[in-house]
TrEMBL record:
The lineage of its organism: Eukaryota, Viridiplantae, Streptophyta, Embryophyta, Tracheophyta. Coiled coil: none annotated. This is AB hydrolase-1 domain-containing protein. Residues 27-302 form the AB hydrolase-1 domain. Transmembrane segments: none annotated. The keyword Hydrolase applies. It comes from the Eukaryota. InterPro entries: AB_hydrolase_1, AB_hydrolase_fold, Epox_hydrolase-like. Belongs to the AB hydrolase superfamily. Epoxide hydrolase family.
């Protein structure tokens, strides 16, 4: 994928340095990656959006890529992450930005829109819809009760556990195991097995990603390690505690949510039913839902369609 000329820079925000890639001029669009990714996951969208008159900024979120990686999981709450993004907007002198997020980037987009709707012109969330906060049970407690210790998020909690399990494989194999998941049921390993051992390593790559592209991810995580990215999961209970004041609050910014019909848990988690139902629409009143044929990394697998969906959304809001 030829990105052409892009500008790399490190920006001080919220007490840390974030590495960002930027291209183009016009209204600001933030592209927020998920796990296990960094800015490179938006390689298909950066040039496309910039060529249509937008200032595209794709940061490596804290803990990932070439950005700073605080050691403690307590530094990875949605409040820290939202603060990082507000600092980016201030750096670029923008009161508002369009926010596009995938996976953890979508979670961050939802929370930035909840916490600072004045800074978000519109939100495009992919693969992870907005779920209401459980008023009673903490996230990890709830996951363990429902899915057990084999559930990937449960296994990611103990510092060092997932890192040690991942280390049994080379970095390219770890990337293949995560990027090429084609299971639509829950990511739960059998008793006594680590999730990374349970995930398959496909012998043949799908047409939407190459060995060379997967190697880019592998090389970056070999430099950074996985702890920063895994700390997002380790802060989930802290997020639950800190988000109590927003119990029952709605996300009021204009929003488009894209999910793949073969995403992990799309049927097992009842995501299909949820995104089409009244509860989601009640929490996000200004909502459009798009279901595409595809898996979890929908912005890569269906890159052209997703880029067009983003552009249509941005253009619609730009004229309103």
């Amino acid at each position: 994928m030829d990105l052409g000329e892009v500008n790399h820079q490190r920006i001080k925000t919220n007490g840390i340095w974030l590495h960002v890639v930027e291209k183009g001029s016009g209204p600001l669009v933030l592209l927020l990656h998920g796990f296990p990714e960094f800015w490179y996951s938006w390689r298909h969208q950066i040039t496309f959006l910039a060529s249509h008159g937008y200032h595209v900024v794709a940061p490596d979120l804290r803990g990932c890529g070439d950005s700073d990686s605080p050691l403690s999981p307590t530094s990875y709450t949605v409040l820290h992450l939202a603060g990082d993004l507000v600092g980016l907007l201030d750096y670029f002198g923008e009161q508002q930005a369009f926010v596009v997020g995938h996976d953890w980037g979508a979670v961050l987009g939802w929370h930035l829109s909840l916490l600072r709707p004045d800074r978000v012109k519109g939100l495009m969330a992919m693969s992870v819809p907005y779920f209401p906060r459980d008023p009673v049970a903490k996230a990890i407690e709830s996951f363990r009760e429902r899915f057990g210790d084999g559930f990937y998020i449960s296994q990611f909690q103990e510092p060092g556990r997932a890192e040690r399990a991942f280390a049994r494989y080379d970095y390219l194999t770890v990337m293949k195991k995560f990027f090429l998941i084609n299971k639509t049921d829950l990511l739960v390993a059998p008793g006594g097995m680590e999730i990374i051992d349970h995930l398959q390593t496909p012998a043949v790559l799908p047409p939407w990603i190459t060995e060379e592209e997967l190697q880019v991810y592998a090389d970056k995580f070999e430099e950074s390690g996985f702890t920063g990215a895994l700390n997002y999961y380790r802060a989930m209970d802290q997020n639950w505690e800190l988000s109590a004041p927003w119990q029952g609050a709605k996300v009021t910014v204009p929003t488009k949510c894209i999910v793949g019909d073969k995403d992990i848990g799309f049927d097992a988690y009842r995501t299909r039913e949820y995104v089409r139902g009244d509860t989601f629409k009640g929490l996000v009143p200004d909502l459009e839902v798009v279901i595409l044929e595809g898996h979890h990394f929908i912005h890569e697998e269906r890159a052209h369609e997703v880029s067009q969906e983003i552009l249509t959304f941005l253009q619609k809001l730009s004229v309103e």
